[in-house]
Amino acid sequence: MQAWRVHRNGEPSEVMELEETDRPTPGDGQVLLKVRAADINFPDALLCRGQYQVRPPLPFTPGVEICGETEDGRRVLATPSLPGGGLAEYVVADEASLLPVPDALDDAEAAALHIGYQTGWFGLHRRARLQPGETLLVHAAAGGVGSAAVQLGKAAGATVIGVAGGPEKAAIARDLGCDLVIDRRSEDIVAVVKEATGGRGADVVYDPVGGDAYAKSVKCIAFEGRVVVVGFASGTIPAPGLNHALVKNYSVVGLHWGLYNTKDPAAVRACHDELTKLAEQGAIKPLVSERVPMADAARAVQRVADGTSTGRIVVLPSGGTR
User: Fold this and answer.
1) Torsion angle, alpha carbons of 208, 211, 212, 214, to 10
2) Mean pLDDT score of the chain, rounded to an integer?
3) Beta bridge partners of 35
4) Beta strand ranges found along the chain (DSSP E)
5) Relative orientation angle of helices 297-306 and 42-49, to the nearest 10 degrees
6) b or e along 109-126 (b: 16 or more beta carbons within 10 Å of the residue's beta carbon)?
7) Where does the pLDDT of residue 307 fall: very low under 50, low under 70, confident under 90, or very high at 90 and above?
8) Nearest-CA neighbor of 123 among 139, 101, 99, 104?
9) Signed CA dihedral, 165, 166, 170, 171: sign only
10) What global pTM score does this model have?
11) For residue 239, is pLDDT > 80?
12) At residue 224, what are phi and psi to the nearest 5 degrees?
């Protein structure tokens, strides 16, 4: 079979190589899946760079989530077992962790439903306790992680303010359903949020960016607001001033969704049930900006690494569209 492999750490476009290799063999409690679609995530870039919290042995195949097909023809969502990631024609995954694909989604959309939307749901509902009528500020609102949070925030009855970089991404955020969009390149995030909320600020901030995005967020956070730290796509990890959190009475909460797989797998399945309902209702639909063939996977991962993509880029190993 074909698989993208990384033999040394570095930039994805430089270290990912498309190779012929043997199909993986399932171990105890695992199943072999044909990859129908593989969604590209920012962690795939971090894996290539050797900067992710999990460091698989070299060589490895990136690709942390897929829509796959079982031997009996069922479509399932899976997180492949590293070092054999999803940018391959076949993967193995733990059978107990497989989730059914909502009928409302095609393969590419399904591949983008799992990690990003689970992260958004746990971040907004379990960690931030977002309430109807509250104001949610979402950074990188046109990206894969941010777009999921925008849709989930709207589904929860929140007023959603999206932050994006540049007119093109701002238009995408607007189309996703944001009540207000801020172009961070030409507008003052803090001033716009305060004006839009009558000086109160955002009740919940969803931050997959870190760096300057975090710094500005805590300047426009509401009384008893919650900042959900999801990641650091900017490359800069903030150093929160706890005295500032004390004086302004807000909370900073972290979210590592992967821990729920081991600490509370029942919650992951319950979340998937809720996401399936929302997908069937049309309340959420992954923003798939591009469907690319297997040969273009390395370039696609590099674009995600560089922050130039919007929504989700999905690799279709078989060349199909479903």
Assistant:
1) 50
2) 95
3) 68
4) 2-6, 16-20, 30-39, 65-69, 75-78, 90-94, 99-100, 135-138, 159-164, 180-183, 202-207, 221-229, 251-254, 288-293, 312-316
5) 100
6) bbbbbbbbbbbbbbbbeb
7) confident
8) 139
9) negative
10) 0.93
11) yes
12) 60, 30
Tokens 């989604």 identify what position? 105
H or E element, residue 248 = helix 242-248
Rounded CA-CA distance 201/215 in Å is: 14
CB 185 within 8 A of CB 207: no
Our CA dihedral for 103, 108, 112, 114, rounded to 10 degrees, sits at 40
List pLDDT tens digits, range 73-132.
Answer: 999 999 998 999 999 999 999 999 999 999 999 999 999 999 999 999 999 999 999 999
Concatenating the DSSP letter of every residue in 120-160 gives HHIIIIIIS---TT-EEEETTTTBHHHHHHHHHHHHTT-EE
Give the tokens for residue 212: 């300057």
Nearest of 68, 63, 54, 82 to residue 12 by alpha carbon:
63
